[in-house]
Specification:
Layout: H1 28-35, H2 40-51, H3 55-63, H4 68-84, H5 94-107, H6 113-130, H7 138-150, H8 160-177, H9 182-194, H10 196-208, H11 215-234, H12 242-251, H13 258-272, H14 274-277, H15 279-289, H16 292-303, H17 307-323, H18 325-330, H19 335-348, H20 360-379
Keywords: Nucleus, Transport
Protein name: Importin N-terminal domain-containing protein
Subcellular location: Nucleus
């Protein structure tokens, strides 16, 4: 879009709106300076400008500013204009708006993260408006558009992978929140289902690359795991996850990806349930959580009173026990089961008092009582 800086501020309009102190902004620079703080007056003017037809122009003007605060307001302006004032956008500028947002996504693909997230939310909101009527295959089309745009000159470092993962993470979350009905929702769902192979391939590529150990790539792995968690929450078919499941178990053993992998596995267990996987998931997962590595980590975090690690592990092991209670009770004679129960009992002795400064001991007690309740009638 060919935007200019000819914004009319409240003090310049025919209605001569004024602020509480009876002043007004006579130029763009004054407005941007106070919005950077931001002052209540500047925020009030921003809200008024966003409601006007030239609010579409305001978004890019704010994004061009050097202040991250103003850049965030610019990205947010895109999102609220698409959400609230879609009908005020000239029909001939619908595709142009998409290209403008993608341009800014690439521009901020390496951060600041708050600005990037807001821009990706704006694009997702745009997709909810246009898919599939005027934008089909929008997920692969977005990837292609990002790649094309990334080859153009930009004033900031470009990180296309980071931007695409951010978009992929937000799409299923926003669809679950969106108030879509009837054929519109089913068509949008179909777009997501058709894109699952691309999504999993993209995530799998980042998770499987062991040649990169730099911090930037570790962050991409973490982001890939959060993206995977988002798609599991959406309801990705269980048979599509088999190739990537074992990789997540491996990443559980890496310090940089431990927390994110834990959240993925908990989500997988609670969302999919044992009915989807049966003994296949039970056994492979059980081998991981009763491995010498896991036993050592549990013993260490209890000994060192590392509440963050202990809490994650207690939640993970408890969730497994809740979903596969019968499997554990039926295999009490196995050495792995003894290791599992020993770790759960160890969590009971975690320093501190339940409900006052930790919940770890309660999680363990609860699942052990569950085993006991099932064990008595099962073996009698």
């Amino acid at each position: 879009m060919n935007f200019d800086n000819s914004l009319k501020f409240p003090g310049q309009s025919t209605t001569q709106k004024t602020t509480e102190n009876h002043g007004f902004y006579t130029d763009l620079g004054s407005f941007l300076s106070e919005l950077e703080i931001p002052t209540p007056t500047a925020v009030d003017v921003l809200h008024n400008l966003q409601k006007e037809p030239n609010g579409w122009q305001l978004a890019s003007i704010l994004l061009e500013n050097s202040s991250s605060q103003n850049q965030f307001f610019g990205a947010h302006t895109f999102q609220i204009k698409i959400s609230r004032d879609w009908n005020t956008l000239p029909e001939g500028q619908v595709e142009q708006l998409r290209d403008e947002i993608i341009k800014w996504i690439v521009e901020f693909s390496n951060g600041p993260n708050l600005v990037l997230t807001k821009l990706c939310l704006a694009l997702t909101t745009y997709a909810l408006r246009t898919v599939p009527e005027t934008w089909t295959n929008f997920i692969p089309a977005t990837l292609q558009a990002l790649e094309v745009e990334s080859k153009k000159p930009h004033s900031r470092p470009v990180n296309t992978e980071n931007a695409f993962l951010e978009i992929l993470t937000l799409i299923p979350e926003e669809l679950n929140r969106a108030d879509l009905i009837g054929s519109k929702k089913s068509q949008f769902n179909q777009e997501l289902l058709d894109s699952i192979p691309l999504v999993l391939n993209t995530i799998g590529t980042f998770l499987s690359n062991d040649t990169r150990t730099d911090i930037a790539y570790e962050l991409l792995r973490q982001k890939s795991l959060r993206c995977l968690q988002s798609w599991i929450q959406y309801g990705i078919p269980s048979d599509s996850l088999a190739p990537i499941f074992n990789r997540v178990l491996i990443l559980l053993q890496r310090e940089s990806t431990f927390e994110a992998a834990t959240e993925v596995l908990i989500e997988l267990l609670t969302r999919q349930g044992n009915s989807q996987y049966g003994n296949t998931l039970s056994e492979s997962f059980f081998q991981c959580i009763t491995s010498p590595w896991m036993k050592n980590v549990v013993d260490t975090c209890i000994r060192e009173s590392n509440e963050d690690v202990a809490s994650n592990l207690a939640r993970l092991l408890t969730t497994y026990g809740e979903e596969f209670t019968e499997y554990i009770v039926q295999h009490l004679a196995k050495p792995d089961t003894s290791i599992y129960l020993e770790m759960m009992i160890g969590f009971i002795g975690f320093p501190g008092y339940f409900a006052e400064d930790q919940e770890i001991s309660f999680l363990s007690i609860k699942i052990l009582f569950t085993f006991q309740a099932l064990y008595t009638p099962f073996y009698s």
